[in-house]
Amino acid sequence: MSLTDSLLRPRAVVAAALLGAFLVPIAASAQNPPLAEVAKKEQERRKVAKPSGKVLTNKDLPQGGQPSGAAPAPLPAAVPQPQEDQAAQAQKPAETDKDKDEAAWRARIGAARETLRRDQMFAEALQSRINALTSDFVNRDDPYQRGKIGEDRQKALAELERLRADIAQHTKDIADIEEEARKAGVPPGWLR
Fold this sequence. Notes:
Layout: H1 3-31, H2 35-48, H3 86-90, H4 102-139, H5 143-184
Helix pairs in contact: 4-5
């Protein structure tokens, strides 16, 4: 074996390894279908598939525990209960009962403060978005892109104004709760 053969052989091995390292992932990805194709097939499958749920009636229920010959008792109708979020509960007028305890006052003021904090954070994030859109608007030369960015900026400004009004209302609500608690003789520590 000559000196040139001994120098060329490791290079050929390295070249073959590099070629294999690049070709194996390409070949593997060519075998997998694209995500859009998989999603389309799944959508078509769901259109064709029949719903598997069965509606249960009183006739389907077991008759155990019923006197012989008696008809099964009807199922009580489900009455949907409206679920109020914390902000709506915080805005309710206080109960006039003297039984209102520390936990209720803490929950009420806590919910109002949490709503205010969440809206303030959203306003800060929205202001950052407006600043970025303003910067993009100034730095664009294409009139179409500037128009689109300008529209997005105007929408964000309108949302920020609405949010600022909400923040002012939440601040007033907190002050009203504190005043109400003061009039009701609630210890100040309950509202901290």
